[in-house]
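Exercise 7b. Backbone tokens:
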């Protein structure tokens, strides 16, 4: 069996491994030398690694691509012309650096990296910065040669013009690797929910300084950080406050390009979640994903300067449709089915068992109810408030019918009533629960409420 066949079998086998075994495989791969590490195996596990977040050995390749990592997509999910990068380009860039770059610097950086006791910025930046600058120069030189000499470009990068574009973008990012990583270290962890006034001032200064050299540097810096933001519109407001020594038309063009890329990426993410198995199967987790998408869209609508332009409006409407579909299909429908499986296939039948749920089952059911409640607010943001309200009414009507179940002891009937009341209050609010409570009092023999 060849080495490539062996690693292909490993990649296939990892799909069915439990988490602890998967982490053992990752640890073994991380011990391999950089030139022998099977990146396609790690790529096959990336979705689960993102969830598990195991501590990883910082190899020289991982160190090199730290400023770029937020823009990478798996090769099968990569889309052109929206400012993203395919992970397949990593191998191309690394090969170019090995063949054309500073071999002595790469070797010395690898040695210094092994000697680091921590990965704190104070220790990491002095090691990484010379590598980023050297890599930027090497890739920029190779990119320039490829653009001047078509045959040389084909020899280095093949015939795909988009691959050449990606190499050029990565060269730019390496060139501003230090400010990018400085900002990452100063800002909250990804996804960034908000930035403070002090952090906004820091970013404004950094963007203005980069833009005073070349606008493309400021644009690239913003796009990298926007990929880490839960509310990318907040970063657009920071960009709007930065001042550059250029014509207003040049600045406006750059801002429009940034806005177009950010909204296109929001659409891409929503589409990918709806059409692939990468969407969270748990409706509670899917609710958090939906909230992040809605927050991102809301922040853009309040901060984009090109909102009135037809192309931008088309992107916004596309994002609304994709997010709305995700809410209805991945959150509400799944939450309804999961809740039915917990309290009985038919909540209106005697088989409904809300009064017999264990504590963990009850907590899971209440979490689903809260997820449905959150959908009411999110539905308004994407224009489906009526559809969501109708769906929640169906769920609550089904729950309400359960109090009419026959053959229950008074104690079980009371537990069912109060359990159902709590769920309906979570989903539709106290008024709906109060109406059911009055009905339940009569059912329990207390007569009509006065």
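Sequence design result:
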């Amino acid at each position: 069996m060849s080495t490539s066949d062996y690693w292909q079998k490993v990649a296939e086998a990892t799909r069915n491994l439990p988490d602890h075994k998967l982490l053992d495989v990752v640890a073994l791969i991380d011990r391999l030398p950089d030139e022998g590490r099977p990146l396609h195996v790690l790529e096959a596990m990336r979705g689960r690694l993102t969830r598990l977040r195991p501590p990883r050995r910082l190899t020289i390749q991982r160190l090199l691509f730290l400023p770029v990592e937020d823009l990478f997509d798996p090769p099968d999910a990569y889309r052109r012309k929206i400012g993203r990068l395919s992970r397949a380009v990593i191998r191309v860039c690394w090969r170019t650096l090995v063949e054309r770059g500073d071999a002595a610097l790469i070797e010395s950086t690898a040695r210094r990296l092994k000697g680091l006791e921590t990965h704190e910025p104070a220790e990491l930046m002095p090691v990484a910065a010379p590598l980023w600058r050297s890599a930027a120069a090497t890739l920029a030189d190779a990119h320039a040669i490829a653009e001047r000499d078509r045959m040389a470009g084909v020899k280095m990068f093949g015939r795909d013009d988009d691959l050449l574009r990606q190499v050029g973008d990565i060269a730019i990012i390496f060139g501003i690797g230090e400010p990018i990583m400085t900002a990452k270290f100063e800002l909250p962890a990804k996804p960034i929910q908000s930035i403070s006034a002090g952090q906004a001032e820091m970013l404004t200064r950094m963007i203005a300084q980069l833009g005073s050299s070349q606008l493309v540097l400021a644009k690239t810096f913003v796009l990298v950080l926007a990929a880490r933001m839960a509310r990318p519109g907040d970063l657009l407001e920071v960009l709007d406050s930065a001042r550059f020594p250029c014509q207003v038309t040049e600045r406006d063009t750059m801002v429009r390009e940034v806005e177009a890329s950010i909204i296109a990426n929001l659409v891409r993410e929503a589409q990918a979640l709806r059409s692939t198995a990468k969407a969270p199967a748990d409706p509670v987790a899917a609710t958090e994903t939906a909230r992040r998408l809605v927050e991102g869209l809301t922040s853009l609508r309040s901060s984009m300067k090109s909102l009135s332009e037809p192309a931008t409006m088309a992107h916004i409407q596309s994002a609304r449709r994709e997010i709305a579909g995700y809410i209805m299909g991945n959150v509400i429908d799944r939450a309804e089915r999961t809740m039915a499986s917990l309290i009985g296939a038919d909540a209106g039948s005697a088989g409904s068992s809300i009064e017999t749920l264990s504590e963990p089952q009850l907590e899971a059911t209440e979490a689903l109810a809260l997820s449905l409640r959150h959908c009411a607010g999110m539905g308004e943001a994407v224009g489906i408030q009526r559809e969501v309200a109708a769906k929640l009414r169906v769920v609550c009507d089904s729950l309400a019918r359960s109090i009419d179940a026959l053959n229950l002891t008074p104690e079980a009937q009371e537990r069912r009533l109060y359990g159902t009341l709590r769920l309906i209050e979570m989903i539709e609010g106290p008024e709906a629960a109060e109406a059911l409570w009055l009905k339940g009092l009569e059912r329990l023999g207390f007569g009509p409420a006065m």
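Instructor comment: The first strand starts at residue 72 and ends at 73. Residues 370 and 426 are 6 Å apart (CA to CA).
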